[in-house]
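Handout, page 2. Input:
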Amino acid sequence: MGTSTRDRRDAFGEYDALWRARIEPGHDRVLEALFDEIEATTLTGMRLPNSEHESRRWRIAEIAPDFRLEDVWALPACGGAQDFGTLLEVMAALDPAHGESAPTRMLFSIRYRLGCWFGWDDATRARAIPDAADTTLAARLPADLRNTVTNPNRSSYGFRPLYRNDVEWAAELSNRTVHTVMHLAWVDKGQGFHQGQMAVYVKPRGKLGPAYLALIAPFRHGVVYPALLREIERAWHHRTRTDTK
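Output:
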């Protein structure tokens, strides 16, 4: 279901004055660089149709059936069946908020400032999953997926791991705007060839959640994810070259 312009205006009305006073002056200075990067990074973007992900029986579908599949991306990471652990290590080492992409760093900086000012990211507050009683998807895990992550701590970008098996890994992030799941998969392409795939599931909160997701969608698709893919590609090539020496 889409979000109207009026809904977005109503949801963000209370933040308008703060945006204009503290964010907008510096924001305009990076817009030209931001859209230059959009043009460059879309060349490496590998967004997939949701059906590509939904055609396979991933365990996340039984754990989060009430979440919406927002994005699916093929990752520039390929290898054998045994290399899924390497992909997870590469992903764990990434820090998009401090990566090489200046526009991405700016977007994360703006988001973190807003989150700090309005208390969106208060990790001490347990928020119920929208339209549910549980505060975490860990409560829904079947017995065979419980205690399967060796490091349950939050990543540098806020996600808390939920489970891992031979071909899947999932983590969640909950704040005032949305409850999100990042799902990483090691997709069997045949003849011993596997490729990484990332899917993002969301469940927005209140009026603010849908409006926020609609607002940031062009930046996520045009800047953040493609820049992340470039970092993954560089890290993967470096890691695999090192491993073969």
